[in-house]
Specification:
The protein is of the alpha+beta class. The protein has two domains: 5-177 and 292-372, Aminopeptidase (3-Layer(aba) Sandwich), CATH 3.40.630; 179-290, Alpha-Beta Plaits (2-Layer Sandwich). 28% of the residues lie in helices and 25% in strands. The chain contains nine helices and 19 strands. It has helices at 5-13, 24-33, 105-116, 141-150, 203-215, 264-278, 299-312, 327-330, 355-372; strands at 39-45, 53-60, 66-72, 90-92, 95-97, 124-130, 157-160, 172-174, 176-177, 179-188, 192-193, 230-237, 245-246, 249-258, 283-290, 293-294, 317-319, 336-338, 352-354. The structure holds zinc ion. Residues 72, 103-104, 133, 162 line the site of zinc ion (ZN).
Protein backbone atom coordinates (compact mmCIF):
# COMPACT_ATOMS: atom_id res chain seq x y z
CA UNK A 1 0.00 0.00 0.00
CA UNK A 2 1.87 3.13 -1.15
CA UNK A 3 -0.16 5.44 1.06
CA UNK A 4 -0.49 3.35 4.17
CA UNK A 5 -0.30 5.72 7.17
CA UNK A 6 1.82 3.20 9.07
CA UNK A 7 4.43 3.08 6.31
CA UNK A 8 4.42 6.88 5.97
CA UNK A 9 4.69 7.41 9.73
CA UNK A 10 7.56 4.91 9.84
CA UNK A 11 9.45 6.83 7.15
CA UNK A 12 9.13 10.04 9.15
CA UNK A 13 10.03 8.43 12.49
CA UNK A 14 13.16 6.92 10.92
CA UNK A 15 14.55 10.47 10.48
CA UNK A 16 16.03 11.75 13.74
CA UNK A 17 14.51 15.24 13.99
CA UNK A 18 15.05 16.64 17.47
CA UNK A 19 14.20 20.37 17.63
CA UNK A 20 15.24 22.39 15.65
CA UNK A 21 14.62 19.93 12.78
CA UNK A 22 16.01 20.22 9.26
CA UNK A 23 16.89 18.07 6.30
CA UNK A 24 16.05 14.40 5.93
CA UNK A 25 12.66 14.41 7.61
CA UNK A 26 11.57 17.27 5.32
CA UNK A 27 12.97 15.42 2.28
CA UNK A 28 10.80 12.45 3.25
CA UNK A 29 7.64 14.55 3.56
CA UNK A 30 8.34 16.42 0.30
CA UNK A 31 8.72 13.08 -1.50
CA UNK A 32 5.29 12.07 -0.22
CA UNK A 33 3.57 15.32 -1.19
CA UNK A 34 4.95 16.01 -4.68
CA UNK A 35 3.32 12.92 -6.28
CA UNK A 36 0.02 14.07 -4.75
CA UNK A 37 0.18 17.27 -6.80
CA UNK A 38 1.50 19.64 -4.13
CA UNK A 39 3.83 22.53 -4.86
CA UNK A 40 6.31 22.32 -2.01
CA UNK A 41 8.30 25.28 -0.74
CA UNK A 42 10.93 24.83 1.97
CA UNK A 43 12.98 27.47 3.74
CA UNK A 44 15.37 27.71 6.64
CA UNK A 45 14.92 30.54 9.14
CA UNK A 46 16.74 31.89 12.18
CA UNK A 47 20.20 31.60 13.68
CA UNK A 48 21.56 29.79 16.71
CA UNK A 49 20.49 29.37 19.46
CA UNK A 50 16.82 29.54 18.31
CA UNK A 51 17.53 28.18 14.84
CA UNK A 52 18.25 27.51 12.10
CA UNK A 53 14.85 25.90 11.66
CA UNK A 54 13.41 24.35 8.51
CA UNK A 55 9.81 24.98 7.49
CA UNK A 56 7.67 23.55 4.71
CA UNK A 57 4.66 25.03 2.96
CA UNK A 58 2.82 22.76 0.51
CA UNK A 59 -0.12 23.94 -1.57
CA UNK A 60 -2.44 22.18 -4.00
CA UNK A 61 -5.14 23.96 -5.96
CA UNK A 62 -5.98 27.66 -6.10
CA UNK A 63 -8.97 29.74 -5.14
CA UNK A 64 -12.17 28.45 -3.62
CA UNK A 65 -12.31 27.40 -0.02
CA UNK A 66 -8.90 26.92 1.56
CA UNK A 67 -8.33 24.06 4.01
CA UNK A 68 -5.06 24.15 5.96
CA UNK A 69 -3.44 21.38 7.97
CA UNK A 70 -0.70 22.39 10.38
CA UNK A 71 1.86 20.38 12.25
CA UNK A 72 5.48 19.88 13.21
CA UNK A 73 8.16 17.38 12.23
CA UNK A 74 10.46 18.12 15.16
CA UNK A 75 10.40 15.89 18.22
CA UNK A 76 11.56 16.17 21.81
CA UNK A 77 14.77 14.32 22.75
CA UNK A 78 14.05 10.62 23.36
CA UNK A 79 15.86 10.18 26.70
CA UNK A 80 17.45 6.91 27.81
CA UNK A 81 15.73 3.60 28.49
CA UNK A 82 13.66 2.84 25.36
CA UNK A 83 12.75 -0.80 24.69
CA UNK A 84 13.74 -0.23 21.04
CA UNK A 85 15.67 2.46 19.15
CA UNK A 86 13.46 5.60 19.23
CA UNK A 87 14.39 6.44 15.62
CA UNK A 88 13.88 2.90 14.31
CA UNK A 89 10.09 2.56 13.95
CA UNK A 90 9.02 -0.76 15.45
CA UNK A 91 5.66 -2.54 15.34
CA UNK A 92 4.91 -4.39 18.56
CA UNK A 93 1.57 -5.54 19.91
CA UNK A 94 -0.48 -3.48 17.46
CA UNK A 95 1.50 -0.34 18.29
CA UNK A 96 3.93 1.66 16.18
CA UNK A 97 6.79 2.66 18.50
CA UNK A 98 9.15 5.55 17.90
CA UNK A 99 9.79 9.15 18.93
CA UNK A 100 7.12 11.26 17.23
CA UNK A 101 4.68 8.39 16.62
CA UNK A 102 2.08 10.37 18.59
CA UNK A 103 3.51 13.91 18.67
CA UNK A 104 3.08 14.29 15.77
CA UNK A 105 4.56 12.42 12.82
CA UNK A 106 1.73 9.89 13.07
CA UNK A 107 -0.88 12.59 12.45
CA UNK A 108 1.08 14.10 9.55
CA UNK A 109 1.33 10.63 7.99
CA UNK A 110 -2.40 10.12 8.52
CA UNK A 111 -3.16 13.42 6.82
CA UNK A 112 -0.96 12.58 3.82
CA UNK A 113 -2.58 9.14 3.56
CA UNK A 114 -6.00 10.82 3.79
CA UNK A 115 -5.15 13.07 0.84
CA UNK A 116 -3.94 10.12 -1.20
CA UNK A 117 -7.35 8.49 -0.94
CA UNK A 118 -9.33 11.68 -1.36
CA UNK A 119 -11.59 12.03 -4.35
CA UNK A 120 -11.30 15.16 -6.47
CA UNK A 121 -12.23 18.20 -4.40
CA UNK A 122 -12.58 21.89 -5.21
CA UNK A 123 -10.65 24.63 -3.48
CA UNK A 124 -7.19 24.80 -1.99
CA UNK A 125 -5.39 22.48 0.43
CA UNK A 126 -2.24 23.52 2.23
CA UNK A 127 0.14 21.93 4.72
CA UNK A 128 1.93 24.25 7.16
CA UNK A 129 4.75 22.19 8.67
CA UNK A 130 7.50 23.45 10.94
CA UNK A 131 10.68 22.00 12.41
CA UNK A 132 10.35 23.99 15.63
CA UNK A 133 7.19 23.56 17.62
CA UNK A 134 8.72 21.87 20.65
CA UNK A 135 11.46 24.51 21.05
CA UNK A 136 11.40 28.30 21.22
CA UNK A 137 9.06 28.36 18.18
CA UNK A 138 10.38 31.75 17.11
CA UNK A 139 11.35 30.88 13.50
CA UNK A 140 8.78 28.14 12.94
CA UNK A 141 5.06 28.65 12.46
CA UNK A 142 5.41 32.43 12.80
CA UNK A 143 7.77 32.46 9.80
CA UNK A 144 5.38 30.19 7.90
CA UNK A 145 2.50 32.56 8.57
CA UNK A 146 4.57 35.46 7.22
CA UNK A 147 5.45 33.39 4.13
CA UNK A 148 1.78 32.59 3.55
CA UNK A 149 0.91 36.27 3.69
CA UNK A 150 3.60 36.96 1.05
CA UNK A 151 2.07 34.26 -1.14
CA UNK A 152 -1.45 35.63 -0.65
CA UNK A 153 -2.58 32.42 1.03
CA UNK A 154 -5.51 32.89 3.39
CA UNK A 155 -6.94 29.67 4.83
CA UNK A 156 -10.61 29.59 5.79
CA UNK A 157 -10.05 26.96 8.45
CA UNK A 158 -7.13 25.14 9.95
CA UNK A 159 -6.85 21.66 11.45
CA UNK A 160 -3.83 21.01 13.66
CA UNK A 161 -2.80 17.39 14.15
CA UNK A 162 -1.62 17.67 17.78
CA UNK A 163 -2.41 14.64 19.94
CA UNK A 164 -5.58 15.84 21.68
CA UNK A 165 -7.35 12.54 22.38
CA UNK A 166 -7.11 11.25 25.93
CA UNK A 167 -8.53 7.81 26.80
CA UNK A 168 -9.49 6.90 23.22
CA UNK A 169 -9.26 8.39 19.74
CA UNK A 170 -11.80 11.17 19.23
CA UNK A 171 -12.78 11.77 22.85
CA UNK A 172 -11.32 15.30 22.90
CA UNK A 173 -10.50 18.12 20.48
CA UNK A 174 -9.08 21.53 21.38
CA UNK A 175 -10.86 24.73 20.38
CA UNK A 176 -8.64 27.08 22.35
CA UNK A 177 -5.65 27.25 24.60
CA UNK A 178 -4.73 29.25 27.64
CA UNK A 179 -1.97 31.80 27.34
CA UNK A 180 1.29 31.66 29.24
CA UNK A 181 3.59 34.30 30.69
CA UNK A 182 6.73 33.80 32.78
CA UNK A 183 8.18 36.48 35.06
CA UNK A 184 11.43 36.87 36.97
CA UNK A 185 11.48 39.10 40.06
CA UNK A 186 14.71 40.37 41.61
CA UNK A 187 14.83 42.33 44.85
CA UNK A 188 18.14 44.05 45.60
CA UNK A 189 19.41 44.55 49.14
CA UNK A 190 22.62 45.48 50.89
CA UNK A 191 24.75 42.61 52.15
CA UNK A 192 25.93 42.77 55.75
CA UNK A 193 26.50 41.09 59.12
CA UNK A 194 23.38 39.68 60.76
CA UNK A 195 24.50 41.30 64.05
CA UNK A 196 24.63 44.74 62.40
CA UNK A 197 21.30 44.94 60.52
CA UNK A 198 21.34 48.76 60.52
CA UNK A 199 24.33 48.54 58.14
CA UNK A 200 22.52 46.16 55.76
CA UNK A 201 19.21 45.92 53.88
CA UNK A 202 17.61 42.48 53.83
CA UNK A 203 15.82 41.78 50.49
CA UNK A 204 14.05 38.62 51.72
CA UNK A 205 11.21 40.24 53.72
CA UNK A 206 10.47 42.48 50.74
CA UNK A 207 10.30 39.52 48.38
CA UNK A 208 8.05 37.67 50.84
CA UNK A 209 5.68 40.66 50.93
CA UNK A 210 5.65 40.80 47.12
CA UNK A 211 4.85 37.10 46.85
CA UNK A 212 2.14 37.36 49.53
CA UNK A 213 0.50 40.19 47.57
CA UNK A 214 0.73 38.16 44.35
CA UNK A 215 -0.68 35.10 46.09
CA UNK A 216 -3.71 37.22 47.12
CA UNK A 217 -4.56 38.12 43.49
CA UNK A 218 -7.69 36.44 42.18
CA UNK A 219 -7.63 36.65 38.40
CA UNK A 220 -11.02 35.20 37.48
CA UNK A 221 -13.45 32.32 38.00
CA UNK A 222 -13.06 30.83 34.53
CA UNK A 223 -15.48 31.16 31.60
CA UNK A 224 -17.85 28.84 29.74
CA UNK A 225 -14.87 27.43 27.83
CA UNK A 226 -11.91 28.05 30.11
CA UNK A 227 -10.78 27.00 33.57
CA UNK A 228 -9.75 29.84 35.92
CA UNK A 229 -6.39 31.52 35.29
CA UNK A 230 -3.70 30.63 37.82
CA UNK A 231 -0.51 32.22 39.08
CA UNK A 232 2.21 29.86 40.31
CA UNK A 233 5.47 30.76 42.03
CA UNK A 234 7.87 28.36 40.32
CA UNK A 235 11.19 29.28 41.92
CA UNK A 236 12.55 31.15 44.93
CA UNK A 237 16.30 31.73 45.17
CA UNK A 238 18.58 33.50 47.63
CA UNK A 239 21.55 31.18 47.54
CA UNK A 240 23.05 32.35 50.79
CA UNK A 241 25.27 29.68 52.40
CA UNK A 242 26.21 31.72 55.50
CA UNK A 243 24.16 31.83 58.72
CA UNK A 244 25.57 35.21 59.73
CA UNK A 245 25.15 37.12 56.46
CA UNK A 246 22.22 39.22 55.29
CA UNK A 247 22.13 38.47 51.55
CA UNK A 248 22.54 41.02 48.77
CA UNK A 249 19.60 39.94 46.63
CA UNK A 250 16.58 37.62 46.48
CA UNK A 251 14.86 36.27 43.38
CA UNK A 252 11.61 34.56 42.47
CA UNK A 253 10.01 33.28 39.29
CA UNK A 254 6.31 33.12 38.39
CA UNK A 255 4.32 31.40 35.69
CA UNK A 256 0.78 32.51 34.88
CA UNK A 257 -1.53 30.39 32.72
CA UNK A 258 -4.37 32.65 31.68
CA UNK A 259 -7.63 32.38 29.82
CA UNK A 260 -9.07 34.64 27.14
CA UNK A 261 -10.20 37.21 29.73
CA UNK A 262 -6.60 38.46 29.94
CA UNK A 263 -3.71 39.62 27.78
CA UNK A 264 -0.14 38.81 28.72
CA UNK A 265 0.97 42.44 28.86
CA UNK A 266 -1.86 43.39 31.22
CA UNK A 267 -0.78 40.66 33.63
CA UNK A 268 2.80 41.89 33.50
CA UNK A 269 1.58 45.41 34.33
CA UNK A 270 -0.41 44.04 37.25
CA UNK A 271 2.63 42.30 38.74
CA UNK A 272 4.72 45.41 38.10
CA UNK A 273 2.23 47.39 40.18
CA UNK A 274 2.68 44.96 43.08
CA UNK A 275 6.44 45.46 42.93
CA UNK A 276 6.03 49.24 42.84
CA UNK A 277 3.88 49.11 45.96
CA UNK A 278 5.94 46.63 48.00
CA UNK A 279 9.54 47.23 46.92
CA UNK A 280 10.04 50.02 44.37
CA UNK A 281 13.66 49.04 43.69
CA UNK A 282 12.69 45.48 42.71
CA UNK A 283 12.98 44.62 39.02
CA UNK A 284 10.79 42.51 36.78
CA UNK A 285 11.62 40.66 33.59
CA UNK A 286 8.72 39.11 31.70
CA UNK A 287 8.20 36.90 28.68
CA UNK A 288 4.78 36.25 27.16
CA UNK A 289 5.11 32.86 25.51
CA UNK A 290 1.61 32.89 24.05
CA UNK A 291 -1.70 34.72 24.28
CA UNK A 292 -4.88 32.83 25.04
CA UNK A 293 -7.28 32.22 22.18
CA UNK A 294 -10.64 30.62 21.55
CA UNK A 295 -12.15 29.47 18.26
CA UNK A 296 -15.82 29.84 19.22
CA UNK A 297 -17.68 26.55 18.81
CA UNK A 298 -19.47 26.67 15.46
CA UNK A 299 -19.20 25.29 11.94
CA UNK A 300 -15.60 24.05 12.29
CA UNK A 301 -16.09 22.23 15.60
CA UNK A 302 -19.38 20.81 14.24
CA UNK A 303 -17.60 19.56 11.11
CA UNK A 304 -14.89 17.79 13.11
CA UNK A 305 -17.30 16.54 15.76
CA UNK A 306 -19.63 15.08 13.11
CA UNK A 307 -16.76 13.35 11.31
CA UNK A 308 -15.58 11.77 14.57
CA UNK A 309 -19.08 10.74 15.56
CA UNK A 310 -19.80 9.19 12.14
CA UNK A 311 -16.75 6.91 12.39
CA UNK A 312 -16.47 6.26 16.12
CA UNK A 313 -19.92 6.86 17.58
CA UNK A 314 -18.66 9.33 20.19
CA UNK A 315 -18.87 13.09 20.39
CA UNK A 316 -15.59 14.79 21.34
CA UNK A 317 -15.30 17.14 24.32
CA UNK A 318 -14.47 20.66 23.14
CA UNK A 319 -11.55 21.53 25.40
CA UNK A 320 -9.15 24.40 26.08
CA UNK A 321 -6.91 22.49 28.51
CA UNK A 322 -3.22 21.70 28.23
CA UNK A 323 -0.13 23.73 27.43
CA UNK A 324 0.42 26.11 24.55
CA UNK A 325 0.66 24.93 20.93
CA UNK A 326 1.24 26.57 17.56
CA UNK A 327 -2.50 27.15 17.46
CA UNK A 328 -1.69 30.34 19.40
CA UNK A 329 -0.14 31.72 16.16
CA UNK A 330 -2.41 30.08 13.59
CA UNK A 331 -5.54 31.34 15.34
CA UNK A 332 -4.63 34.79 13.99
CA UNK A 333 -5.32 33.48 10.44
CA UNK A 334 -8.65 31.71 10.74
CA UNK A 335 -10.67 29.44 13.05
CA UNK A 336 -8.45 26.58 14.23
CA UNK A 337 -9.18 23.24 15.79
CA UNK A 338 -6.76 20.62 17.07
CA UNK A 339 -7.52 16.93 16.71
CA UNK A 340 -5.13 14.01 16.79
CA UNK A 341 -4.08 10.76 18.41
CA UNK A 342 -4.41 9.71 22.07
CA UNK A 343 -1.67 11.55 23.94
CA UNK A 344 -0.83 9.13 26.78
CA UNK A 345 2.75 8.46 25.59
CA UNK A 346 3.70 11.84 24.10
CA UNK A 347 7.13 13.08 25.21
CA UNK A 348 7.62 9.79 27.12
CA UNK A 349 9.87 6.76 26.77
CA UNK A 350 8.47 4.17 24.33
CA UNK A 351 6.11 6.67 22.65
CA UNK A 352 3.70 4.62 20.55
CA UNK A 353 0.57 5.02 18.41
CA UNK A 354 -1.96 2.26 17.86
CA UNK A 355 -2.03 1.01 14.26
CA UNK A 356 -5.81 0.96 14.47
CA UNK A 357 -5.89 4.62 15.58
CA UNK A 358 -3.57 5.72 12.75
CA UNK A 359 -5.84 4.01 10.23
CA UNK A 360 -8.99 5.48 11.77
CA UNK A 361 -7.46 8.96 12.01
CA UNK A 362 -6.70 8.74 8.28
CA UNK A 363 -10.35 8.02 7.49
CA UNK A 364 -11.61 10.81 9.75
CA UNK A 365 -9.14 13.35 8.32
CA UNK A 366 -10.26 12.36 4.82
CA UNK A 367 -13.92 12.88 5.78
CA UNK A 368 -13.11 16.27 7.31
CA UNK A 369 -11.31 17.55 4.19
CA UNK A 370 -13.99 16.20 1.87
CA UNK A 371 -16.75 17.84 3.90
CA UNK A 372 -14.88 21.12 4.32
CA UNK A 373 -14.28 21.48 0.57
CA UNK A 374 -17.56 20.04 -0.60
ZN1 LIG B 1 3.22 18.41 19.17
Amino acid sequence: MPHDPIALASQLIACDSITPARGAVFDALEEMLVPLGFAVERFVAGEAPDGPVENLLAVRGAGGRHFAFAGHLDVVPPGDGWASDPFAPTLRGGLLHGRGAVDMKGAIAAFVAALAGLEQVDGTISLIITGDEEGPAIHGTRALIARMAERGLHPDLCLIGEPTSVARLGDMVKIGRRGSVNMWISVPGVQGHVAYPHLADNPIPKLVRILAAIEAIHLDDGTDWFQPSNIEVTDLTVGNPATNVIPAAAHARLSIRFNALHRGEDLVARIRAVLAAEAPDATLKAQVSGEAFLSQPGPLSDLVGNAIEARLGIRPDLSTTGGTSDARFLSALCPVIEFGLPNATMHKLDEAAAVEDLQMLTLIYRDIVAQALR
